[in-house]
Amino acid sequence: MSAIKLTIDGKELEVAAGTTILQAARELGIDLPTLCHDPELPPNGACRLCVVEVEKAKSLVASCVTPAAPGMVVHTESERVVRVRRSILSLLIANHPLVCITCEQTGSCKLQDYCYRYSVTENEYVGETKELPLDSSNAFFVRDMTKCILCGICVGKCQEIAGAGAIDFTMRGFITNVGPAYEDKIEDSTCVFCGLCIDSCPVGALVPKALIGKGRPWQVEKTKTICPYCGVGCGIYLQTRDNEVINVRPDFDSPVNRGHLCARGKFGWDYLQSKERLTTPLIRSEEVFVAVGWEEAFGLIVDNLKEIRSSFGPAALMGLCSPKASNEESYIFQKLFRSLGSNNVDSYSRHCHAPAVEGMTRAFGGAAMTNSMEELVSAEAIFLIEADPLKTHPIIGYRIREAIRQGTCLIAAQSEDTGLSDIASYYLQIKSGSAVALANAFAAVILEENLYNPKFINKRTEGFAAYSSSLGPEVVRRSLELTGINEEQLRSAARAFATANSAAIVSTAGGVAQEGGSLLVTALANLALLTGNLGRENCGLYLPYSENNLQGSADMGTLPALLTGYQPLREKTVRDHFSRAWKVELSEQPGLSAAALFSGYGNKTVKAMLVMGENPAACGEHREAVTEVLRNLNFLVVQEMFMTETAMLADVILPAAGFAEKMGTYTNVERRVQLNRAAIVPPGDARPDWAILTELAGRLGFKWEYESPEDISTEIAALTPQYAGISYERIGAKGLQWPCPHSEHPGSKYLYEGRFQRGLGLFTPISMDDQAKLLFSYEENRSAGKKTLCNCLSDSMRNRSVISKL
Amino acid sequence: MDSIGCQCIEESYSELEPFIAQYAGQQTALITVLHKIQETLGFVPYDLQVKVADTLGVPISEVYGVITFYAFFSLKPKGKYNVSVCKGTACYVRGAPKVLTALEKELGIKPGDTTDDGNFSLEVVYCLGACGLSPVMTVNKDVHARLKQERIPKILAQYGE
């Protein structure tokens, strides 16, 4: 690209060919007014407000659609330009209700700001005005189309980014409007309530209901923090006033979500202000709970834990830690139990993801998504298998849509249609339960047609011989029976995957969190190894977790047999290292897992439990058995925000702070450690979990000196190689991706460059019989594996939020 | 326009359905497909709008947006006689609004609608290319020039039965 020299407002600059005048002017810091321009949508030159005067040009040009040309001399605020801008604004407000006194957008309305800038008042033109009914049909936001200036940004976001296609321009001329087909209410359209339209509307046409009457932009405090729902970890700004959250806006500078959100992030925060919040410690007195002070609650807990520990031994204590707890909280949670001599620490909510962890650990030695979400956009091919990211992890869905717009080939193998099926280059409608067979058949075709990557296989993997011999021609034949697709479909899709220079594989909870899930993960890992799509950019295996800190919680060692950074407890050097740092003796007796506890093996030894922010009694298929185990305990403490099914079984309930009420870090699915900041104070006597644990540890005789989560994070960095270079100071606005081994390290976008965690990547053959069995067992377990925007752990939040209406 | 009333709808559908099907997944074929439906049926019925949206993979909001944007497309069946009143600049200044009001009064419908008996539909167009004859309107292929509101009832009466 050759550089172009031009002059804007007397300043010379050089820009790359293809740069628009608007972009060039903005590079110079010139604030050109725009209404219809959005950096991520194709420019449409509709509002004309960005017109500039170009010397020797016949007329004014719209800078957003006019490329800079060599020698151009541009004036952005000439008298002529200003005159035209004033006319445009006058025409706009001639048909715009000037109800700025009560309009929620006042203070952040672009139309208002530009009218102010160019001294445009209301009386220049008088004519007809639009009369359109207010659409207040849904629980989330109000659409007042009389205020709409037809910039079209919401249409672009809805169609291009979210792919919901709920709205478009309708009619023509004066009566042009933006809305669903047939003037339907937005509730009756395909709207998914992601809120992308709301947060990009330049005027006050789209307003969240929760915000109405609650505060003007200048009265509102904005706190940058992280969405507490799924593992994507979107950057959000909490807007608060008088200790109340009134709105959430996306962080447009976040490398994770780039200004995008889904309904959960945009609207799902209102549970924080639920009347059901627990605001005081509660102790069970016969069949009722009695409110008590912290002193009494702590006293009771300490007495019981000490007594049970001395009567039954330390292994009688067990802790379940929520994958919604921060890294700092997860870390001190397991530290507390291990300090008490028990390695019984786990998370029950993790069991949905156990297959992913198992499969990935076997193949690579580590269990994290190998590459970053942003890399999906640049992948040449994406193999999406039994996943509906637009529902489960919408940001990943948006990225895949974006990739397709840029020419990525999407191969979608689904047993049910998803929002991405229609736009896939290859759509393989497979029978449910046949995903493993399909992945294996891909490998068989790739081997047979010599499309694999021998260089990668020789250098980076082991087990290839056994694997390749398991993939004879009969594999293809039987897979066709199992999947129900035809051979041509299979071969062409497999070729498209194998011949791409970089191909990513994506599956989500719907695919892997069910019986046979670890087989699917193994099959997919095999496929990635076979084609060398690992250890470099824009490829890899994506199995995103469903909870905001599921990755971090595991990183922090809330696992029975692993300390922070997956350091094995069984190794004496590891135990000694932690013993010295913590100044306690660590037991080498392996801990009990949540699965083992609830399946009945453990309930004879475990007598007392602390459950921090989990609700196992309402989670999964084995609810009754879980409840029975919890009921039979001698003593149960629950740290919770709400009276959950699990809390109902407790002897002591401690009221916990929500995400917006405490500081801490979360690690998202791409291993990005991000800082969560407190925006409000917790209700009543509720306290952050880290403060509760620290206090409890002190009363149990441990000398912890944490005054803030940041103190804890320093200790984490010192004991966790992957986190060694991560500090609050370094995390900054963009976060840091582990491994980040030292304080100069920029973080790691993708894993396994040059070496897998286990050394060589391991191929594991999958027998045809196992695949066939899956097909039958799948049908029965279908509902268990099916995931939408909601999932069991988030339900205690979601059920108390407006998003439960989705 | 003669074809609308007499051609059997079922026959048209059996022709249109394979036509739509051949554009499966082709979002860019939207206008081509709508064009064919409009030409065959004289309008684009709701069920075919949904079918087009599903088959081509285009949101229904976009299908509706396109139909309501282009004057060529119609959401409702047009009448036996389609009255197109020009509201282009020349016709406008020479009295088209009055002509339109008279038509609305006489037919009892607004532009975009069809009379209950299916005889007349009314639409506004912007320039028929006959500014010298303004104000002007067409009824199917007949051109009526230099209109005055008083003449409207008489003109319509020619098509009455």
Could you please describe the fold and organization of this structure?
The complex is a heterodimer of chains A (806) and B (161). Chain A is of the alpha/beta class and 806 residues long. Chain A contains 26 helices and 29 strands. Chain A has a seven-stranded mixed sheet, with helices on one face. Chain A has a five-stranded mixed sheet with strand order 2-1-5-3-4, sandwiched between helices. The longest helix of chain A has 19 residues. Chain A is globular, with a radius of gyration of 29 Å. Chain A starts with a strand and ends in an 8-residue tail after the last helix. Chain B is of the alpha+beta class. Chain B folds into two domains: 68 residues, no CATH class; 77 residues, Glutaredoxin. A four-stranded mixed sheet of chain B has the order 2-1-3-4, covered by helices on one side. Classes of the chains: A alpha/beta (806), B alpha+beta (161). Chains A and B meet through strand 7 of A and helix 5 of B.
Distinctive features:
heterodimer; A: 806 residues; alpha/beta; Ubiquitin-like (UB roll); Alpha-Beta Plaits; Rossmann fold; 5-stranded mixed β-sheet; 26 helices; globular; B: 161 residues; alpha+beta; 4-stranded mixed β-sheet
Q: CATH topology of the largest domain in chain A, which one?
A: Rossmann fold
Helix share, percent of chain A: 25-40%
Query: Mean pLDDT of chain B, as a whole number?
Result: 88
Helix/sheet category of chain A: alpha/beta
Overall residue-averaged pLDDT value of chain A: 91
Radius of gyration of chain A: 29 Å
Write the element-wise H/E pattern of chain B from the N-terminal end onward. HHHHHEHHEEEH
**Strand order in space, largest sheet of chain A:** 14-13-25-24-23-15-16
Anisotropy-based shape of chain B: elongated
Give me the secondary-structure category of chain B.
alpha+beta
The number of strands of chain A is 29
Structure annotation, total helices of chain A: 26
Rg of chain B from C-alpha positions? 17 Å
CATH class placement of the largest domain in chain A: Alpha Beta
What's the structural domain tally of chain A?
Answer: 4
Shape of chain A: globular
Number of domains of chain B: 2
Largest interface: A-B, 18 and 15 residues
Distance between the termini of chain A: 48 Å
Strand residue content of chain B: 5-15%
